[in-house]
Amino acid sequence: MDYTSTSSYLDSAYADCDRAAKVISHKWWIVVRAFQVLISLVSLVMLPILITHFKCRRMKFHVNLSLLVVNVIILYALECIDTVVTQLRFLILNVTYVSPCDFQTDIWLAITLRLPAYIYLIAFPLIHCAVTAERAWATVFAKEYEKVGCTFGVVCTIFVWLMTFGFGFFIAYTASLDVEKPLLLLVITTPRNRYPIAYMHWVLMLLIILTSVADYMVIVQNRRYRKKLQDVEYNLSMNFQLRENMVTMQLIWPLDVFFTIIFTVYLIAGSYMRSSLVDLSPVDYMFVYELINTLFPLHTFATLLLYTRYIKAHEVSRSVKIMPINYHKEMYFKELQKQWA
């Protein structure tokens, strides 16, 4: 990633009244912001609907997986709320402003509005990696995993949020030191943190790719264990864990691949925008910057839509229940009879 033009990149973010006036007249800028608000509001409505679908179908997962899923839902909500608040502020200003200078944003407000996006960007891949690790554990130790408590989920949650808030604090602190002028574009990448942020992006992309590969490996291993299970004595706990894995990974793996594609496009586009190869006016630069940032609200919306449609179309509850309880009782007592014989 070439950061030779970082100074001009930051200069384009600084607000002045003339530049703000040009932004106000940029109609496509308004369209992009309005689109982000719209899909984020729809996503916020879809979240409780999705949760209701899970509850109505009585989808029960292991406590570790449930804890990690709660973290994912929190991240979706955080991303949607931040997008709505940030973009709605600019849309309201576009109607109520008295002077173009009203579009200036102090650094403390810029950090407040922009930092949640970094939190989402960092925590989301880490949580998905934790989910993959949890499912791998549930696959390898399927017989005993049902008895495992919530320690793994709690430890992963604490680790993810410590890492996220730690790096987030670093970004906010360095931005507050470097930025002195009001901002028109909400950019908190500065000379002090630009390289750590760049390295973070590449590390996260590598982590996302490895997570997607690991997801597929878990699916393959899960199928092998299920085939072996047919040739051995029936085990209720192992059968439940393997079926739970099947349902979970059918949901997770395609979405991990989708996020990998979205994040890769975001990273490449952002890197190109920050390079010296781009020759755009400051206003056009800001428009393209906002256009790139649309990828994550769009990803959240598409992900929630896919979750909802998958649950409705395939009736996951039947897969999670696996088999009628009478069948489990029958198999259980058959095993007892073998032991008593």
UniProtKB/TrEMBL annotation:
Taxonomic superkingdom: Eukaryota
Keyword Isomerase part of the UniProt annotation: no
Transmembrane segments: 28-51, 63-87, 107-131, 152-177, 197-219, 251-273, 285-308
Classification via Pfam families: 7TM_GPCR_Srab (PF10292)
Gene Ontology CC: membrane
Membrane association type: Multi-pass membrane protein
Location(s), subcellular: Membrane
Keywords in alphabetical order: Membrane, Receptor, Transmembrane, Transmembrane helix
GO molecular function: olfactory receptor activity
Key word Membrane present: yes
The family this protein is said to belong to: Belongs to the nematode receptor-like protein sra family.
Protein's name according to its UniProt entry: Serpentine type 7TM GPCR receptor class ab chemoreceptor domain-containing protein
Originating organism: Ditylenchus destructor
